[in-house]
Amino acid sequence: SNPFEVKVNRQKFDILGRKTKNDVGLPGVSRSKAIKKRNQTLLKEYKEREKTNVFKDKRFGEYNTKITPEEKMIRRFTLERQQNYGKKNIYNLNEDEELTHYGQSLAEIEKLNDIVDSDSDTEERGTLSAELTAAHFGGGGGLLRKKVSSEQQDEEEEKPKSRKELIEEMIAKSKQEKQERQTRRESALELTEKLDKDWKEIQSLIARKTPKSEKKDKEVEKPKPDEYDMIVRELGFEMKAKPSERLKTEEELAKEEQARLQKLEADRLRRMHGIEEQANKKRPSHMSADDLADGFILDKDDRRLLSYKDGKINIENEEEKEEEEGEEEEEEGEEEDNENEEESQEESASENEEDDAADSHSDLESDLESEEEAAGNKEEKKHKGIENESQNMEKLDPKTEAAKSELPYTFAVPESYETFKSLLAGRTIEQQLIILERVQKCNHPSLAVGNKAKLEKLFGFLLEYIGELATLDLPELRTIDKLVLPLYNLCQMFPEAASDSIKFILRDAAHDLEEVIEVKGRATFPGLDTLIYLKIISLLFPTSDFWHPVVTPAFMYMSQLLTKCRITTLQDVIKGLFICCLFLEYVSLSRRFVPELINFLLGVLHISLPKNQAQGYTVVHPFTPVGKNLELLFVCDKEDLKSWEKQNVPLSIVTRLKETSKTEINHIRLSCLALCFDLIKKCAALYESLPSFREIMHPVRILLTQHVPVNEYPEKMQEWYHSALKELENKVKHYTPLICEKKKPVPLKQYTPKIVKVLEFGRKQAGNKKEQERKQLIQRHKRELKGAIREIRKDNQFLARMQLSEIMERDSARKRKVKELLGSLATQEGEWKAMKRKKWKS
Amino acid sequence: QLPTGLYKKVLVILHDSVLPYMNEPTLMMDFLTVAYGIGGAISLLALNGLFVLIHQHNLEYPDFYKKLYSLLDPSIYHVKYRARFFHLTDLFLSSSHLPAYLVAAFIKRLSRLALTAPPEALLMIIPFICNLFRRHPACRVLVHRPGGPADMSEDPYVMEEEEPSESRALESSLWEIQSLQNHYHPDVAKAAAVLNQSLSEMEDDISGLLELSAYELFDKEVKKKAVDVPLEFEQVRGLFGKKNDIFGEHFSLD
């Protein structure tokens, strides 16, 4: 470009590798560009600064991109029609609603678009008559007027017509014209019709003479359809009648379920071994995505999926479902999916029908079939949604049916624990379950925003409620047994919240324990509620994980219970054994080693022995080899020994030892002992693979073989004893010396230069990636800020310039006017003086 | 003869509030020796005073290590004075002049006893044993014996033997620690797995682990933030409704 416009930014030093962007600039060009831009934007704004009128585009759907242009046009047209409908236009001279084009009704044109439209017509219409122009445009110029008047001189010579008269005349004329046009058109129409008729007559004559080949074709088509064709049609319809997604057969479903379980199991194993998954940190969630979305929890029992058997749909429990149709409203969340499918099905069905209608020959059979099928599917689908509910309903005995029907269908989530309790108070277990389920359904997180938090709270309430039930004087364990189900469902929905609330409980319990230890120096076993919580943990979470946010603390807590708590009563023993069971259950899959468990079992065996036994083993805390609280499980009564039958230990004993006879207590003791034997057996089976299995079990084995008075035990007990002992003995153990894993040889340190990647010269490279990014951002922000400030300053300059030029303009205009005025005054004065002088002279 | 409670109290404060102020600390020699001989917690406590005497006053104590060895019984992991005892044991075993058989016997006995220890003690004893290995490389055969007999029917180590030299500890291997790699506590399992690899040169600092309590351990676990919480996928069928539920066999919900 012009070398005079170019400005070169000279650099003091040339630096290799540096790229400069700003070595050459075009200040003039860029300035003019900026001014132009400002003229277009800022100046416009400035000029319109006190104007409040706004242009509003009210065209229908102008900015809606979702509508296709054709549709938009159609909608606009209908809107326009609607607006104009019934409105009499005062300016409409013709007084009819017919839309016209060149005086012809549009409807007519559309109907017979091939008629008339003769050339002469258009020519005529294209020009305005002289009168018309005269009337419309103020009568035209004088010339025209004159001409008109000269034409009509003989009739109305004396005065020109008034305007009103003129207009009336014109109206009359136009009406007349229109009449004429109409008649003309009608006649033309008649003519064409006549022509058509004639043509048809002639055509029939021609048709008779058609060649034979054509005739043949028609004959072939007319008789009943070919079998092949029918089959083809049928096949075509069958394809269309099928839903978009193929329904799965029972085997496939089973296979899928199996695959899912296998995957989950593999996942569990991986966690059990504590293998960190780095590659894809996002673990697959345990439930598939759509399950979580609609709250429909997959489980074998509750689910009955649509399936085919021998090519027919399995339709079961039709009647029951129909009874419960009324409850459909509740199932909205669940049915969403189904509805979608239904819709697609309906669509396909309707398509089917359309096809049929369009088709010339009817294929009744297949049509009927497909419709039937579609209907059947629909019905099935509809009912599938309620299946879950109905399943639960089925479980209930008929007695509660009546009471159940009184329950309201919608519940709000209780906001506090008190309201939660009052909600469940006085209800039977089944009702409580239904209430909980309905609360869950009505407040599904997908239905409203706040529901998630509410339901998360519900989990906490439920836990608290379970704890309360367990601490009752007569613990309602059967209720808890049932309440575990909704707890599980809630936990599946909100794992984080559930784990948090359980951790909270655990922390409280451990804190209490610690406090008691600090104050008293020893601890007592917690209540039944804590034991139940620990059991619930094993139901809700996988206990085999190498590390788990809930299970690991639970392990720690249980370990503390087994090592810190004093054993003073029979209840303590039962609680301890309960925890032992928990431990065993927790590690049943992972086969992890729990030293506390063995210690405790050894201790329990120890207290079942009479005092002052010779020792060959050592018991550890909390058991003592000597001292009080020994012989807690020792039974010497021969009668009791004889009459003992193995019985399950009722858990309610834990909270309240009934005033039972000595015999019964002795029996419970023996049951505990049997339980202990069984646990030892299970431990032995579990830890068999440990390299130091023998050493671990050594004290137990000694105690069992040398100290337990087997012969005094009843026969049943002896069975337990022997099965435990058998598990311990006869385990051939092989010891192989340990060998360290081979270490990778560490390469020698070498003094090679450290190579740092330099991305850009002149930039500071310090810091890691994050830091660098931050710096870059700061830099960019600074630059932008500067730019913005510069722009604003330039805008202000521009505006000031504009204002200044305005003021200057105004001033100059004023000056000019003043000058003019003064000039005129001066000339006036001059003239006046001249006159005066003249007068004076004369 | 003092009552046990008083005995313990005296021994607890003896080493830092009594011995330094005595003109003739050696006079306490007999008292401490007797206390050391009593066994149990009192022996553990007497150890501290005895150490001061041995260390600063040239007390010759015959069979000191043998006595110390015999002090090791399952209760050491459970008693209140665990931290103090292991601190001293660490001191006693820090000498690099000890014979390998002795250290190996200690290692073997400690790990054997660890089979009954609670997790907080295990977290302390495993680094402790690792440190012993670092100080006494001759003992590393316990974890690394490449050319040993392939198949043994039983552990050559004799637990009941009083004399460390007779215990055949050096012929054995640390199967106990290998068992502990299956411990339920993830940290213990990880710590035990360290012995699979060859050890690093630096000693672990166990002073912070000595006082570890179960509650601290629990607290640490609870405060860990989990990214996501894995869930049990087996549908529940009630409190005792699991497959092969142990509770169903022995407890009833009444």
UniProtKB/TrEMBL annotation, chain A:
Q: Spans of biased composition, class Acidic residues?
A: 316-357, 365-374
Identify the main location.
nucleus
Q: Which GO terms describe its biological process?
A: maturation of SSU-rRNA
The record's keywords, sorted A to Z, are: Nucleus, Ribosome biogenesis, rRNA processing
The UniProt annotation puts the region (Disordered) at 134-187, 205-227, 264-401
Q: Which GO terms describe its cellular component?
A: Noc4p-Nop14p complex; small-subunit processome
InterPro entries named among the record's database cross-references: Nop14
* Sequence ranges of Basic and acidic residues compositional bias: 158-187, 211-227, 264-280, 297-315, 375-401
Tell me where it resides. Nucleus, Nucleolus
Q: What does this protein do?
A: Involved in nucleolar processing of pre-18S ribosomal RNA. Has a role in the nuclear export of 40S pre-ribosomal subunit to the cytoplasm.
Q: Would you identify the family this protein belongs to, as annotated?
A: Belongs to the NOP14 family.
What's the protein here called? NOP14 protein
- Give the encoding gene's name: Nop14
Automatic annotation (TrEMBL), chain B:
Keywords in UniProt for this one? Membrane, Transmembrane, Transmembrane helix
User: Could you list the residue ranges that cross the membrane?
Assistant: 31-54, 85-107
What highest taxon heads this organism's lineage? Eukaryota
The protein's matches in Pfam families, at most eight in alphabetical order, are given as: CBF
Which source organism? Gymnorhina tibicen
Q: Which GO terms describe its cellular component?
A: Noc4p-Nop14p complex; small-subunit processome
Q: Which residue windows are coiled coil?
A: none
What is the protein name for this chain?
NOC4L protein
UniProt family annotation: Belongs to the CBF/MAK21 family.
Q: Check the record and name the PANTHER family matching this protein.
A: NUCLEOLAR COMPLEX PROTEIN 4, NUCLEOLAR COMPLEX PROTEIN 4 HOMOLOG
State the Gene Ontology BP annotations.
ribosome biogenesis
Which residue intervals define the domain CCAAT-binding factor in the entry? 43-192
